[in-house]
Amino acid sequence: MVANLIKDTLRYIVLGIFMCSIFFANDAKSKPIVADLAIRSVDINHDFNGINILMFGARNDTGKIVVLLRGPDRNYIVRKKEKIGGLLWMNKKSVEFEDVSSLYAIASTNALSEIQNDNLLKRLEMSIDNIEINAIPEHHSIKSKKTISEFREAFKRLKIDSGLYDSEIQPISFWGETLFRTSLKFHKNLEDGLYTAEVYLIQDGVLSAMQSTPIKVSKIGFEAIIFDLAHKNSLLYGFLCVFMAISAGWSASKIFGRV
Amino acid sequence: MQIYLPIAELPVNIFLILGLGGMGGILAGMFGIGGGFLITPLLIFIGVPPSVAVATSTNQIIASSFSGFLAHLYRNNVDIKMGIFLMVGGVFGADIGVRIFTFLESLGQIDIAISIIYVVFLGFIGTLMAVESSRTIIKQKKSSGKSKNSGHTGKFGSWIKSINLPMKAEFHKSELEISIFLPIIIGVLAGIMVSLMGIGGGFVMIPAMIYVLGMPTSVVVGTSLFQIVFITSIVTVLHSVNTQSVDIVLAFLLIIGGVIGAQFGTVIGLKLPAEKLRGLLAIIVLAVCIKLGLGLFIEPDELYTIKSVMY
After folding, report:
1. pTM value?
2. DSSP code at position A71
3. Which of A76, A239, A240 lies closest to B306 in CB terms?
4. From the CA of A191, how many Å to the nearest CA of chain B?
5. Which residue from A52, A60, A97, B292 has the least number of CB within 10 angstroms?
6. Comparing B134 with B6, which gets the higher pLDDT?
7. The Cα angle at residue B6 between residues B1 and B7, in degrees rounded to 5
8. Phi, psi angles (nearest 5°) of residue B303
9. Under a CB-based contact definition with an 8 Å cutoff, are residues B246 and B55 in contact?
């Protein structure tokens, strides 16, 4: 508790200093929008329970602010179970989607409809509905557009259910006219990799400035080492598993005589 | 006390896993079987992905088979030559099995395939044991129990022997002269079972060695353990390389539980009458079979699944 309190206090002091530096620095004044994060790297172990990272910045021009948090792109296979032969439930159709953000969150000063430029919203993937989710075309099976959009909707729903896509637009709060802050939600189920926090300034439906900040998420601890070894050096890992079992079996026969 | 399984990607209670391993160990001690065929479905019930359950169970079996093998080796109960031919077959079987496993996984069908194989297999074994043990119990009640089962090498065995397979070899330890293809074929079948089901395959191999090959019972168990140690080791490495589904932390906990459980199992096994034990095991096997089977027929709450693919 006390440790957390000190940590929070320290964070706000640092933040305060940073705010002042933005406010008084000439450089900052010349840019329409600047922002930074309280921390830029996240270490996750199995106890990791999600984290909110504070983003703060200054707006030196008029306009609406939208912040996007996006995670490493991945390919995903979505499978659907169907009743086979009238009794058995098994995976039947599948669609593979290419280069889709594994995490998505959005914050905005205004409702997105107030931006009044649907093309821009679509191009910048603002709101979950605008995220580009493209199916990989397959040679062996041609799927109808209807099937693909059905699977796309299921994908988004599962992402929202798992907490990795935040369907709510988070608020951005202001201190005075210039300084703003918001909180970026990193859900506990996130993958390791490189994330970006992008700040957009939009004036009358036109993008006037943007800035992107990377956030590194890495897995740490014993579990991460095992996982890495199993995936990156799987032959060695396999031998290690066998060695572990053989020595356990040998020790057991030494200790108990027989098993 | 919670622990995180790095490959199953699941937090579990340590004592639950130790208990599961212990149950397997008790069964092993009581009946002299590996218990892999119950551990795999029980792992699936607690939420471990079926592919991880199978691969990890294979890893776990190495330990118990190795200590069992050592015990038989000290008593000079292992036909190494026969074991090597079984092993050669086992390597082919393991490779075939892991290929099937990897293929099914790429289709997204491995989970259901494992469930179906287990339902069929447990249903068959469970029914067989239930019938057998109830028959024995009834017989014992009717008359003073007269022992049945005299000569081995049944009709099937002598039929096999009548087929003249080439490349006969002499197996001194088993006092046999048979074609090397017989143990190789048995090894292939056992190897496939090891890689698809995560079991040692002893209770398929042992009857085959007695009734088909006509090996003396004294060397059968030691020889099959010898083969199982090698095949489960190979399959563990193959699964690690092909599907990355061996969870070393889970395997370790199961082994610890198994070692302790086996000590109790031996004591219990000596105290309870054999038919009642078998009847009990039959009930457990059928219950697991039904629970696993229901999962196949009941409509799941969520029809869609997503999986991120790594290239």
Report:
1. 0.80
2. -
3. A76
4. 10
5. A52
6. B6
7. 130
8. -80, -25
9. yes
Mean pLDDT of chain B, nearest integer: 85
Q: List the one residue out of A158, A162, A232, A213 whose CA is nearest residue A190.
A: A162
Can you read off the two tokens belonging to residue B219?
Answer: 């060397």
How many CB atoms are located within 10 Å of the residue B14 CB?
A: 14
Q: Give the torsion sign (CA, B245, B247, B250, B256).
A: positive
pLDDT in tens, B107-159: 888 888 999 999 998 998 888 888 887 887 788 777 654 444 434 555 666 66
Amino acid at A4: N
| Tally of CA atoms within 13 A in the half-sphere of B184 that contains its CB | 11
What is the C-alpha to C-alpha distance for residues B108 and B91, in angstroms, rounded to an integer?
Answer: 25
Interface contact B62-A46, CB threshold 8 A: no
Distance, CA of B179 to CA of B163 (rounded, Å): 10
C-alpha angle A38-A44-A45 in degrees, rounded to nearest 5: 150
Q: Looking at beta carbons, which residues of chain A come within 8 Å of B7? A: 226-227, 230
According to DSSP, the residues that pair with A88 across neighbouring strands are: A84
> Which residue, B185, B54, B157, is CA-closest to B115?
B54
pLDDT digits (tens, 9 = 90+) for A204-240: 889 999 999 999 999 888 988 999 999 999 999 999 9
Report in angstroms the alpha-carbon separations of B192 from A80, A184, B234.
29, 50, 12
> Looking at residue A61, what is its pLDDT?
87
Q: Do A256 and B259 touch (CB under 8 A)?
A: yes
Measured between alpha carbons, how far is A210 from A169 in angstroms, rounded to an integer? 19
By the 8 A CB rule, do B21 and A245 touch?
A: no
The pLDDT of residue A100 is: 94
Chain B neighbors of A77, CB-CB under 8 A: 108, 306-307, 309
Pick from A242, A246, A254, A256 the residue to mutate for testing the B interface (most B CBs within 10 Å): A242
Do the beta carbons of residue A97 and residue A75 sit within 8 Å? yes
Q: Which of B271-302 are b and which e, b meaning 16 or more Cβ less than 10 Å from the residue's Cβ?
A: eeeebebbbebbeebbebbeebbebeeeeeee
B306 reaches A (C-beta below 8 A): yes
Q: pLDDT tens, A62-98?
A: 889 999 999 899 999 999 998 888 778 888 888 999 9
Give the minimum alpha-carbon distance from B112 to chain A in angstroms, rounded to a whole number. 7
- Whether residue B307 and residue A223 make contact (CB cut-off 8 A), yes or no, is no
Spacing of C-alpha A251 from chain mean position? 45
B291 has pLDDT over 70: yes
Angle at the Cα of B287 (from B284 to B288), degrees rounded to 5? Answer: 85
pLDDT at A142: 62
Q: How confident is the model at residue A10 (pLDDT cuts 50, 70, 90)?
A: low
**Rounded to whole angstroms, how far apart are CA atoms B261 and B18?**
9
pLDDT digits (tens, 9 = 90+) for A143-152: 778 888 899 9
For strands A165-171 and A104-108, give the pairing.
Answer: parallel
Query: pLDDT at position B149, please?
Result: 43
